[in-house]
Each structure stands twice: as structure tokens, then as C-alpha cells.
């Protein structure tokens, strides 16, 4: 069975973006620390998680090592559209969860307006590699019970307030994970891989 992997950058105080939910790594208001070693590590270990333009710049092609499918919430997807990228991950099967969006600018993107949990359970039964939950926090909160693995890119920073890792999820539901891998970069970011027990 395929696994749903929440692969996400998070601050020390548990936020994945600022209060407005905009992409913290790009644009004029970018504040997320991205060192050269961070980019090199992504290109070497998680090349499929780089957006298409970055893959082109690095000369990366072919299948990814971990994922063949990416899931995004409407707001996360909109960050790419606002940056002029209608499909940031053309090399992956790309699903966007939205009740309001009926059509994407790129016809290769699948719009899902039904229950995210039911859709993910369906995806897990299909053949393929891992399913990358890219964000945002609201979608992660909705899929909380379905997450099999967390790959947290822990940034050496705090933001004070912003978009929490699981959005505004309010129900108390402890889930336990085992640390299965870790990598500390010189620039201070720590990649932590946790697998659900």
C-alpha cells in the first residue's frame, strides 16, 4: 500500500507559512532561510519535490526517488499560480483539493472537490510510489489520520504567528511516530523523518 507523506518545511514554533499563508520561500515577502546546502540536499535526495523551473535549472529529469503524486490545498496551489506557475509539479500526478475551484489553468491538474480522506484512501490502493502531501495546513489537518510518515524540514527560525503545521485542527487526537532518519545541514535546517507506529 502506498503511503501518504507530509513532507513540509516548518519553523521551530510549528508554522509552515506566515499569517497570510503566502509562499514563505518566494516572492517579495519571502522570509524562509534557504541555504545552498539546503538546495543541494533537495536536488540530491528529493528531486521530485523541486518545482519544474528549479528542476530545469538544475538539469533534473526523470522519475523521483520517493513520490509520483503530489497533493495540494487550494491556497497552496494558488501561491504557484500567483507566481506565474500554473503547474509547479508537471513531472508528478498533481491533485488540488478545492470545493470552489472547478477548473485549473493547467489541464493536467486534477481538481478534487470530494472528501479528501476518501480520495487519499483510494490513492493508497493504487500502484505507485509515495503520495506527497505538499500543503497546506488546512488540508493536512483534514488528512491528519491518513498521514503515514512525516518528513519535517525543521528551519532554524521562529515566526511568532502563522499557518500551523495542521492548520486550525482543534480535535485532540495523539498520533505516535518513530524517528527513522535525520540529517543536519550546516545552515541549520534539520531533516527529520518520522514513521507512524
Automatic annotation (TrEMBL):
Coiled coil: none annotated. Signal peptide: none annotated. Residues 3-173 form the Bacterial bifunctional deaminase-reductase C-terminal domain. It comes from the Bacteria. Pfam families: RibD_C. This is Dihydrofolate reductase family protein.
Amino acid at each position: 500500500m502506498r503511503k501518504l507523506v507530509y513532507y513540509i518545511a516548518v519553523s521551530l514554533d510549528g508554522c509552515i507559512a506566515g499569517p497570510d499563508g503566502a509562499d514563505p520561500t518566494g516572492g517579495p515577502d519571502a522570509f524562509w532561510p534557504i541555504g545552498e546546502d539546503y538546495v543541494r540536499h533537495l536536488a540530491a535526495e528529493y528531486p521530485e519535490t523541486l518545482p519544474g523551473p528549479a528542476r530545469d535549472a538544475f538539469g533534473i529529469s526523470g522519475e523521483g526517488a520517493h513520490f509520483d503524486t503530489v497533493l495540494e490545498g487550494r491556497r497552496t496551489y494558488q501561491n504557484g499560480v500567483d507566481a506565474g506557475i500554473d503547474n509547479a509539479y508537471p513531472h508528478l500526478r498533481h491533485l488540488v483539493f478545492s470545493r470552489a475551484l472547478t477548473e485549473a489553468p493547467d489541464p493536467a491538474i486534477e481538481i478534487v472537490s470530494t472528501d479528501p480522506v476518501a480520495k487519499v484512501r483510494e490513492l493508497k490502493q493504487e500502484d505507485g510510489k509515495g503520495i506527497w502531501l505538499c500543503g497546506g495546513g488546512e488540508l493536512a489537518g483534514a488528512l491528519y489520520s491518513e498521514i503515514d510518515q512525516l518528513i519535517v524540514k525543521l528551519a532554524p527560525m521562529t515566526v511568532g504567528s502563522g499557518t500551523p503545521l495542521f492548520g486550525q485542527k482543534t480535535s485532540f487526537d495523539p498520533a505516535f511516530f518513530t524517528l527513522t532518519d535525520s540529517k543536519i545541514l550546516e545552515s541549520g535546517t534539520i531533516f527529520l523523518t518520522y514513521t507512524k507506529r
